[in-house]
Amino acid sequence: MMKTKLPLAFFLAGLLTFACVPLAEAQSPPKWFVDLESGGVFPGYCDVRIPGDTGTLFSLTDDLSTDSSLFIRVRAGLRIHPRHTVLVLFAPLTLDGAGRVDFPIEYNGVSFPANMPLESVYRFNSYRLSWRYGIKEGKQLRIGIGLTAKVRDASIEISGGGQASKNSNVGVVPLLNFLLEWRFSPVLRLLFEGDAAAAPQGRAEDVQLALVYQKNEKWAFRVGYRILEGGADNDKVYNFALFNYFLVGVTAYL
Questions:
Q1: What backbone torsions phi and psi does residue 54 show, to the nearest 5 degrees?
Q2: SS3 of 13, please?
Q3: pTM of the model
Q4: What pLDDT does residue 21 have?
Q5: Cβ distance 229 to 237 under 8 Å?
Q6: pLDDT of residue 28
Q7: I want to staple 251 with a disulfide (CB 3.0 to 4.6 A). Which of 19, 38, 171, 220 is the partner?
Q8: Could you write out the three-class secondary structure of 81-124?
Q9: How far is CA 178 from CA 88, 216, 223, in A?
C-alpha cells in the first residue's frame, strides 16, 4: 500500500507541471482558470464486503443509513495551447452513517453482532491530473478528449460496541477525460464533462451535466447534476457505490 503522502505529492507535481510547460508553442496567450464547485451530495447505494471473498456483504445505505452532505471541489487549469489544456482537481468526500443490522457482520477482521448500533465513515478523496486535447474548438461547439491520472485516497470505517475497524486504500487509476459543450445562445451553454473508465477489476465514472451562464471573459456560473459511481471487486475489497451531486459552480478566468 502506498503512503498517504502520495496524494499531496501528486497534487504538487501537477502544479509543478504547469510551471514547466513550454509556452512558446502556444498560438495565443495562456489562460489560467480556477473553478470552485459546491452543493449537496446524496448517496444512492454503497455495497461493501471486506475482505472481498470472505467478509459479509452489507450496504451503508440500505442496512445502515448514510446521511447526505455538503461538498466542495476545487479545480485549476491552464490552456497551454488553443487545443491543449492541463487540469488539476481536488475532490474530497466524507459521508457518515449509522444504524442497526439484523445479521452479524464480519468486516475487515472484526465481528459485529446482529442488532448492535453501528456507525460508519465513508471517505473517498480524489486528486487528479488531466490533459485534454480539443478535437473541435468552435464558437458554438467544443469537443475534447484526453487522459486523467487519478489518485484515490479512500477508506471505510465501521465501529460499534467498543470495536472499530478501518480499511484504507490509496491507488492510482487511469481514466479517460472528455468534454462536450454546446453554446446555444450568446451567454448560455450546455456542458457535459467528466472522467470515466471500466475494466474487469472495477470501474469509475465522475460526470457532470450543467447549464453554464457566462456574460464576460472573466466569470462563468453553472448549475447542474453530477454522478460519481464505481468500485472494485477483488479478493481484498468489494465495494461499489453511487452518489448524486446537485451542484453550483463558478469559474474565474485569470
A1: -130, -10
A2: helix
A3: 0.86
A4: 42
A5: no
A6: 52
A7: 220
A8: ECCEEEEEEEECCEEEEEEECCCCEEECCEEECCCCEEEEEEEE
A9: 15, 25, 19
C-alpha grid cell for residue 65?
443509513
Q: H-helix or E-strand containing 182?
A: strand 163-183
- Residue in 74, 71, 63 with CA at minimum distance from that of residue 42: 71
Count the residues in the chain: 254
Place of cell 448492535: 116
Task: List the chain pLDDT tens, one digit each, 254 residues.
Answer: 333 344 444 444 444 444 444 433 334 555 899 999 999 999 999 999 999 999 999 999 999 999 999 999 999 999 998 899 999 999 999 999 999 999 999 999 999 999 999 999 999 999 999 999 999 999 999 999 999 999 999 999 999 999 999 999 999 999 999 999 999 999 999 999 999 999 888 999 999 999 999 999 999 999 999 999 999 999 999 999 999 999 999 999 99
Please report, for the chain, the start and end positions of each structural domain, with discontinuous segments joined by +. 6-19+30-253
Which of the following CATH numbers is that of domain 6-19+30-253: 3.90.190.20, 2.40.128.90, 3.40.30.10, 2.40.50.140? 2.40.128.90
Q: How far apart are CA 242 and CA 47, in angstroms?
A: 9
State how far the Cα of 118 lies from the Cα of 111, in Å rounded to an integer. Answer: 12
- Residue partners of 1: CB distance under 8 A and separation at least 6: 168, 169, 170
Q: In whole angstroms, give the CA distance from residue 166 to residue 240.
A: 17
All three cell numbers of 225, joined, read 447534476
Nearest to 248 by CA among 10, 110, 72, 45: 72
Residue 249 CA to residue 38 CA, distance in Å, equals 6
